[in-house]
Every structure is written in structure tokens, then in C-alpha cells.
Amino acid sequence: MSFLEARRQAAQQERRRSARFTIDIPVTLRTISGNRECRMANISDNGAKLETDTPPREGVSGWLIMGGEEIYCTVIWSKDGACGIEFERSLSEDKLVEIAGEQVTETVPVANRGNIQMGRKRGSLLGKGLAKKPEPQSEPPAQTQFEPAPEPEPQKLPELQSEPEIQVRPEPQPEPKPEPKPKPKPGINNPLFISRLQAISAG
């Protein structure tokens, strides 16, 4: 049960414990969206019922203005043409009588919340004074829970193969050419000349 729902039920029980005075006086409900001219249909020390063409939604807070009197309140239920408000602080008996005054048409006794549901008009009661039992509500169909499909396993990427190293062979270097031996110069020290000279001398 939400906090708002629990608060609404508690407010309903508290509101129903107090006697309500049926009245019909003009009031103004001031909220953040502006002022609404309303008719107060009944009032108790804890809250009141307001009739208006544009009731504020449930949970809206504002000020109930009655002449020079301003009371801080919160909307605890809302429907077409009416809404119920809860006072921030309970009204004293003297203040309640002062507000109602001679406008009271009848005193509504403490209601049995088993017979009257919150926000339902008394005109919905049956002729014998018993509230019509609400029709049983069919249970909502059970929601089938679907298990999420398993996620596909991530595909392994193929490992990159390293490229083979290219061996660069050194280019063959040309063998150095032997330097030519210098030819002997003709002269006295030339061996060829000496050998010829010896041959001539021997002959």
C-alpha cells in the first residue's frame, strides 16, 4: 500500500468519526493554479465537502477562504463535480459553530464506513438505508514471466599471424683487381739489358 493510499484511508476513518453539518455556503478554494468558486456541502472539525465544476485532483493543497477566514487544507478525494478536503488542524467546536452558523440544515451522524464509501453521495444508498455492496472485482490475470533469452557468446577473433621476416642478402662486392706491376724501365740496371750484355761478352 502506498503512503498516499494509507493516508487517504486514515483520513477517511478520522473524518467519519466526527459529526458533519450539512450546509450550503459559498467558499473559495485557492490553489497554485488559481481560485475556484465552490459551494460547501458539509463540514466537520476535520474537513469539508466542496462542490465545483472543476475540482482539483487528489493531493493538491491550498487555502479554503470563507470571508475573512483562511484554513489550510489538502484534497483527499476528487471526482466529477465535487471533492473532499482535510484541514491541516482540526477546528474547535466554537469555530465550527461560527462557520456553520444558521446555515446548518441537518446534522449528519457518524457514518459507518462499511456502508458508505469515501466520496459517494448518500443518494446512492438503497431505500432501506443500506449501502449497495460493491460487486466483486475479478482478479487480474497473472502475468507470465518470460525469461530473457541467453546472450550469445562473443565470437573469438582469429589471432593475427606475424609476417615472416625477410632476410636481405648482401649484394656481392666485386673483387679488387690486382694492380699491374710496373714495367722495368730500360737502363743499365735493367736485368734484361744486363743479361744481353753478358751474352755479348761471352761470345
Automatic annotation (TrEMBL):
Coiled coil: none annotated. GO terms for molecular function: cyclic-di-GMP binding. Pfam families: PilZ. Residues 126-194 are annotated as: Disordered. Residues 166-182 have a biased composition (Basic and acidic residues). Residues 14-95 form the PilZ domain. InterPro entries: PilZ_domain. It comes from the Bacteria. This is PilZ domain-containing protein. It comes from Altererythrobacter xiamenensis.
